[in-house]
Input
Amino acid sequence: MHRSAARQSAERHPDGFDLEWLPAYAPDLNPIEQLWSHTKFSEVANVIPDGIEDLYDLVEFTINTNRRNPHLLRSFLDYTKPAF
Output
């Protein structure tokens, strides 16, 4: 959410939001980056597709398969938690 929209929502609903400001670029805090990394370096590593369509199909299949793996998805969320 854009910073100004988040601020407006928090002002309208002061008891409804706990805002956490993140750096503008923080891929280690974004779980989707873990999915892309896993897809790139585990699932499609060393694959030579016949064309862009085959690559697209492989990535789409891999991501759709991983969407049904709650343990894998949980690991991406756990990775983004700060170690305090």
Q: What stands out?
A: The chain has a mean pLDDT of 85.
